[in-house]
Amino acid sequence: MLQLNMSKIAKLLREMYALDTQSEQDTIIKQLMVENQGLRDALNKDVHILNLEADADSPREKSSDSLLH
Q1: Is 27 exposed, middle or buried (0-12, 13-18, 19+ CB in 10 A)?
Q2: What percent of the chain has pLDDT over 90?
Q3: Domain of life of the organism in this record (predicted)?
Q4: Are 8 and 52 in contact (CB under 8 A)?
Q5: Could you tell me if 8 and 42 are in contact, meaning their C-beta atoms sit under 8 angstroms apart?
């Protein structure tokens, strides 16, 4: 997923620098913003999954209440 987003961003950047008019470049910039948000969302999802996996792997500390019973 991340590789796909990064490839799209690179392609859009190449297209943007080849364009002559500001309006054409603005269109590409809007597309870049969408791809950038997609990249951020994918990274956040991956980080969330990694955090869940780390939490599952970490030993749970016993609370003082559980030691009393």
Answers
A1: middle
A2: 4
A3: Eukaryota
A4: no
A5: no
19-66 pLDDT, tens digit per residue, is 878 888 888 888 888 988 988 898 899 888 889 888 888 776 555 555
> How is residue 51 written in tokens?
């955090």
- In angstroms, the CA 64 to CA 69 distance is 9
What's the domain range around 8? 1-33
User: Who contacts 29 (Cβ-Cβ below 8 Å, separation ≥6)?
Assistant: 16
Q: For the chain, what is the mean pLDDT?
A: 80
